[in-house]
Amino acid sequence: MKSLAKLKREPGIWMQDAPMPEIGHNDVLIKIKKTAICGTDIHIYNWDEWAQKTIPVPMIVGHEYAGEIAAIGSEVKGFKIGDRVSGEGHISCGFCRNCKAGRRHLCRKNIGVGVTRPGCFAEYLSLPAVNAYPLPPEVTDEQAAILDPLGNATHVALSFDVVGEDILITGAGPIGVMAAAIARHVGARHIVISDVNDYRLELARNMGATYAVNIKNESISSVMKKLGMNEGFDIGFEMSGNSAAFNMMLETINHAGKIALLGFLPQNTTLDWNQIIMKGLIIKGIYGREMFETWYKMISMLQSGLNIAPIITHHLPINDFQKGFDIMCSGISGKVILDWEQ
Ligand code: NAD
Ligand code: ZN
Fold it and tell me: Which ligand is nearest to the CA of 260?
């Protein structure tokens, strides 16, 4: 089958012919229709320090996809050939304390599709059936291909009650912009989103942000004044992975504020800890998506009118994969979809 793989320990990604994946008794085989390129795929493409430590070579990568069931293991129940699915990319052990308690996203032994086991940038993917998520007809293949990052955004945005609250989102990457759309959908008041990338800030405006601010040109406190905010933000979503952005969030959040941290901050990040202590802040680390409560909620929100269409800015046939990676690397994009059906 046709596939995109990390074949060399150097920047790049390569198209190759690979053997069809095998499925076990508890697996399904998914025929891939559309995939999306994640920021993680760009780390793997660029072969940065994290990728060098994490990614086995050679390996097919990718973990954002929509497809349909093409074969079913003998022990699998609940799926039939032709069912449309996407899938959860974290494969949990099923036996640790958190798995047993139904908190599988917090499994100590998570394995990642397209990160530590073969991924979806291929004509076929073998996946444990419990990780496959059925798609209702209202969810298009394009939307389904980005349920993984929409799930990150949903996990963050629904972590705290945002109804009537003022939200600060640092980082208008695809996940930050989708989090803005969700906060708007569920009833936040002011949603301020910051970035240094004007293209992405414009996407955020189109998806429900009250105010999208380029912090190179304007400060968050000036935005607060314009919006008539006297005290501070009630809730923060850190989605940039930038330590300066996080520190600025700590400065502008109100006492008793709540922060969900998604962006991977550098190890040497220093914080003004007294902001956290003396303001009585609650900080929650976010990893992946809740299995499978997040999946249920995000699909319900799509069915009830959450519009994520503007975040998909490019759609290319798989043979143009290099162009797709170049666009993602440029930062002048939202989500890039690669189509495997042509
Ligand atoms: P992304 O890299 O596309 O977006 C990050 C954005 O932050 C970029 O648009 C960048 O311009 C912006 N930024 C940089 N410096 C900034 C600053 N000082 N202030 C405000 N914005 C700034 O990433 P994404 O795909 O949207 O993901 C968001 C973050 O979450 C990334 O750090 C990613 O690695 C991380 N992530 C975490 C998980 C998890 O499970 N915890 C899952 C997916 C992604
Ligand atoms: Zn586990």
Answer: 1
